[in-house]
Amino acid sequence: xxxxxxxxxxxxxxxxxxxxxxxxxxxxxxxxxxxxxxxxxxxxxxxxxxxxxxxxxxxxxxxxxxxxxxxxxxxxxxxxxxxxxxxxxxxxxxxxxxxxxxxxxxxxxxxxxxxxxxxxxxxxxxxxxxxxxxxxxxxxxxxxxxxxxxxxxxxxxxxxxxxxxxxxxxxxxxxxxxxxxxxxxxxxxxxxxxxxxxxxxxxxxxxxxxxxxxxxxxxxxxxxxxxxxxxxxxxxxxxxxxxxxxxxxxxxxxxxxxxxxxxxxxxxxxxxxxxxxxxxxxxxxxxxxxxxxxxxxxxxxxxxxxxxxxxxxxxxxxxxxxxxxxxxxxxxxxxxxxxxxxxxxxxxxxxxxxxxxxxxxxxxxxxxxxxxxxxxxxxxxxxxxxxxxxxxxxxxxxxxxxxxxxxxxxxxxxxxxxxxxxxxxxxxxxxxxxxxxxxxxxxxxxxxxxxxxxxxxxxxxxxxxxxxxxxxxxxxxxxxxxxxxxxxxxxxxxxxxxxxxxxxxxxxxxxxxxxxxxxxxxxxxxxxxxxxxxxxxxxxxxxxxxxxxxxxxxxxxxxxxxxxxxxxxxxxxxxxxxxxxxxxxxxxxxxxxxxxxxxxxxxxxxxxxxxxxxxxxxxxxxxxxxx
Length: 627
Hints:
Blueprint: H1 15-25, H2 30-40, E1 48-50, E2 55-56, E3 74-77, E4 81-83, E5 88-90, E6 92-95, E7 101-103, E8 109-115, E9 122-126, E10 132-134, E11 136-137, E12 140-146, E13 152-156, E14 163-165, E15 168-170, E16 173-176, E17 179-182, E18 186-188, E19 193-196, E20 201-204, E21 209-214, E22 219-227, E23 233-237, E24 241-249, E25 253-257, E26 261-266, E27 272-276, E28 283-285, E29 287-292, E30 297-299, E31 302-304, E32 308-311, E33 323-326, E34 332-336, E35 342-343, E36 345-348, E37 353-356, E38 368-370, E39 374-378, E40 383-386, E41 390-393, E42 397-401, E43 406-409, E44 411-414, E45 417-420, E46 424-426, E47 433-434, E48 438-441, E49 445-448, E50 454-456, E51 461-463, E52 465-468, E53 478-481, E54 485-488, E55 492-494, E56 499-502, E57 507-510, E58 515-520, E59 523-526, E60 528-531, E61 536-539, E62 543-545, E63 549-551, E64 554-557, E65 562-565, E66 572-574, E67 578-579, E68 581-584, E69 587-588, E70 594-596, E71 600-602, E72 607-608, E73 615-617, E74 625-626
Parallel strand pairs: 1-3, 2-4, 3-6, 4-7, 5-8, 6-9, 7-10, 8-12, 9-13, 10-14, 12-15, 13-16, 14-17, 15-18, 16-19, 17-20, 18-21, 19-22, 20-22, 21-23, 22-24, 23-25, 24-26, 24-27, 25-28, 26-29, 27-30, 28-31, 29-32, 31-33, 32-34, 33-36, 34-37, 35-38, 36-39, 37-40, 38-41, 39-42, 40-43, 41-44, ...
Antiparallel strand pairs: 11-12
Helix pairs in contact: 1-2
């Protein structure tokens, strides 16, 4: 038949003209010729092709109609074992029978299955719970690449061991609510996207090192991510990805992130977002971000080599016995906003530098708590420096900083019995040291360095050495307190330009078995001052005592020291102290004597009327008594 003004396509690699001519000779219409051509060439017309026998993928005997599946085909593996013995491209894959199996040749060979998933729905569907796609069979391997930009799903009705990939590459758009295993690399390339939702579990397994890679423009979001406890199951990544529920690391597995951010974005369900059954060196985050609207925790210890960021209204409370170790060579940050954060132990390794908070933001991003029986430890030359916020010990704990390290709190609060034998700084202002607990220092120096007026509100603590000094050149420290009791077991020093002022009802007690020193190069004013029995305190500095000076040990002032006693009544008690110079500016009525090596003055409205004791002037030069 002849059809005028009809256009014909000469696609299908040049075969269409031949078919068309042959069909013309048989008296067929062109329309029927085109239909027949589409059925004759599957590449031009995608079909559903089902297995009819066990055998190799490449064998025509394996498939219905003797047609080996190709590009665009939807493939169904029925109750047969199909061995993938060549790389293939298809549209989708279904295993729908309890006896459905897809596997590589056991003798070896690595083959790529490319799945376009262009029709949506499930690009891979194990609709029977006992069907099996096993990417490793003896020496053989199957890698899977999913490329379709139309969203499609990985669906598995069975357990995580029913659907096993070697390498899984996604350049298309893929979702999953199912379990499956990857024994090789996970790679989201280009603008590819993989987003898993409840109750999906992606398990990484195999005794080899593999990688998680995501392109900058890609999206990778796991629901549950599990690293199986297989010896040698080591996962590395330099990419950013998200976990919306839990990450589990088995006892013999390891995850090491050299770059990127792992973000836990939590809004529902189980509160345990990280479980590490391996050692602290086996789970290494680069940046760790926790964004949660519900209460979450972590179990086991892990390392953070970059920044740790907490946001959202939910709380983040790692288990009390766990440790978060910060290990880096460049300055990194702990930043907390929203709900409360309570760590177990915090360790900063030798050479690492961690800043708490962000002074440039104008808001408090540096407050968190330390749990019961937990510790902050700064090793070697490590640095842990708070620029804002309050670190609160919620119960008993400890503080440890090595010689050569730097540990600076902004504000420190203690809610239990906290111990230390280390030196550290407190750099904050109002309530720089607070809480209803106690801090007991058996060694080291605590430096109060706040250049804004700083206030000590904690009572009952025992310092070893106390230093009032700025940490920055050309600044000063200004500290005050009105708490009832502070004990000092070491030296007390006020740096040039800095000040310490105690007001009622404060009593600072020096208690020690070795000679200790009060050094004032700025302004120093005690309210009550006590030197307890067996203690020996010396000074060459000048300062003021506004209330009672109780000396049950030994107190000796020398050099150019002048002690000003501004209190009224019995303002020298128990045992006679030794002053260099002494000034009374209040109505003093002591019942004990004193030793004076220099001069004694009564100034202004002050008076000195002793009811007992002897004043002994025992200097080596001319001494004055004046008023």
